[in-house]
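[User]
If only I could read backbone structure tokens as easily as an amino acid sequence. I have put the entry right below:
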Amino acid sequence: MADEKLVKQPVKFSNLLVGAGLNMFEVTTLGQPLEVTKTTMAANRSDGFGGAISRIWGRGGPLGFYQGLIPWAWIEASTKGAVLLFVASEAEFYARYAGASPFVGGITGGMVGGLAQAYATMGFCTCMKTVEITKIKAASSGARVPGTFETFMGIYRAEGIRGINKGVNAVAIRQVTNWGSRFGLSRVAEDGIRSFTGKKASEKLSVPEKVLASALGGGLSAWNQPIEVIRVEMQSKTEDANRPKKLTVGTAAKYIYSQNGLKGLYRGVSPRIALGVWQTICMVALGDVAKDAVEKLTGDPVTAKH
């Protein structure tokens, strides 16, 4: 490693395409139904899993589980995937080059990548997805239901950029801890699998082994669910006269705890674990596989090696 000359890899279209493609696949398959379920549970904390499913189904049948997919989840996925995968790979490479272990390198890459995409793209996307999922439908009373972009412009006119990016600090905290945990714990799991199977550090894991490591990393990363519940509460359109008018991360946490106790801060953790497993399989396991495939096709590395 000491003899290698550090060369910063240029930003390539293939870097961005791999990340965006993986995230679009993730959100359009299992991602959005799990996102809708966990957001519904976090916003309506008296609902259990069954109650959330009934609520979602009652709002739109099977299409209710894809509420907020177009355009917000697609915008988020296409931009988030590109930013996250590229920035995380670069940060992990430099951390490893500086002498960090695979665990520390993985955490560093995940945290830097998560922070970058939180402020670059996720603030307004998560806000609008949550608004779509939690707003009260006017159709039941015979009134016209505002469209997606009409809702967006209504928030912008009333609250400006801050309204569109409501809860962005909670999003940033969530993403830093999310992807720091996912990448770091996935690398720990990979090392454990290598020890168990007798593989050397230089040997690549098989696809099933990568999937297992990623699933473990994704599932265990749900420890920060209280931040996710706080984020949903800050962005939610669920009406409650007792809720403080201007929520911060701190006041939202106090409000949730006062209303629902410690259990309320972990509402929606089950679909969150499932979502974490699926996202991490897509972005870590399939991400590594996709990068290797593109490298074989082009002859050039897709991102800096780690």
